[in-house]
Design goal:
This protein is α/β, with parallel strands linked by helices. The chain has one domain: 3-Layer(aba) Sandwich (Rossmann fold), CATH 3.40.50.1580. It has helices spanning 22-32, 65-79, 115-120, 133-143, 168-172, 182-192, 214-220, 222-234; strands at residues 15-19, 34-40, 47-52, 55-60, 84-93, 103-110, 126-128, 148-155, 177-179, 195-205, 210-211. It binds hypoxanthine. One of its GO terms (molecular function) is purine-nucleoside phosphorylase activity. Pfam families: PNP_UDP_1. InterPro entries: DeoD-type, Nucleoside_phosphorylase_d, Nucleoside_phosphorylase_sf.
């Protein structure tokens, strides 16, 4: 048990898929894993461990934003000996160059957040994916005939804001889309010497307000889930 996860030691696999939403973790466990067991439900943040193609893998939620993914990823890495976390999430595109359903493999996450600086003394505004899992995802995407574009992402603390203009940091680091967790995950993994990647599905085109509707989401996220599972078991 850790402060925020009630699984026993040994009940979480070396590789964890981490969606933001606990119900997405449940959906993945129930539809993609065999023998999935619920190992933690503290605060409704569900964690499951099961088998994918005979290999043990866990899936559990990060919640939203750096404070939340900061807590869960830190406890997974330090208390459960997790080696690799693959965040799977959605993002909003700042540009119509991206289309809804596009898959992105995050190369660098840029943020205005002070999370990495005050947590670990990491001063950089942009932190890269950590370890080899990003490359494994690229290779696996090719094998699966999927396009997962290597992209920089703006990791923001803010969902609702007054000014609709693209934030300066997104322009500075060439980020065509925004989400709210990758920077926190990469900062923890960098500090701890662990592996971390983020795969995103574009769910919103911010300038046109086009989006994937709630009832299309489950189906829309299937390629991302399968890519993360296939790459995840390769890293074991
Ligand atoms: N902003 C931040 N995070 C997001 C968005 C967004 O527009 N869409 C999906 N995740």
């Amino acid at each position: 048990m850790s402060i925020h996860i009630s699984a026993k030691k040994g009940e979480i696999a070396k590789v964890v898929l981490q969606p933001g939403d606990p119900l997405r973790a449940k959906y993945i466990a129930e539809n993609f894993l065999e023998d999935a067991k619920l190992v933690s439900q503290t605060r409704g943040i569900l964690y499951y461990t099961g088998l994918y193609k005979g290999k043990e893998i866990s899936v559990g939620a990060s919640g939203m934003g750096f404070p939340s993914i900061g807590i869960y990823s830190f406890e997974l890495f330090t208390e459960y000996d997790v080696e690799t976390i693959i965040r799977i999430g959605t993002c909003g595109a700042y540009t119509t160059d991206l289309k809804v359903y596009d898959l992105l493999n995050v190369e660098n996450a840029a943020s205005e957040s002070t999370y990495a600086k005050f947590a670990w003394g990491i001063e950089e505004e942009s932190i890269s994916h950590q370890g080899n899992i990003f490359n494994t995802i690229n290779e696996t995407a090719k094998e699966m005939s999927l396009t997962a574009k290597a992209t920089n992402i703006h990791s923001s603390d803010i969902f609702y804001r007054k000014d609709p203009a693209i934030p300066a940091i997104a322009t500075k680091y060439n980020c065509p889309a925004v989400e709210m967790e990758a920077f926190g995950l990469f900062a923890n993994a960098k500090h701890l010497g662990k592996n971390a990647a983020t795969i995103l599905t574009v769910s919103d085109i911010i300038p046109t307000h086009e989006n994937i509707s709630a009832d299309q989401r489950e189906k829309a996220l299937k390629p991302m889930i399968e890519l993360a599972l296939e790459a995840g078991i390769k890293s074991l």
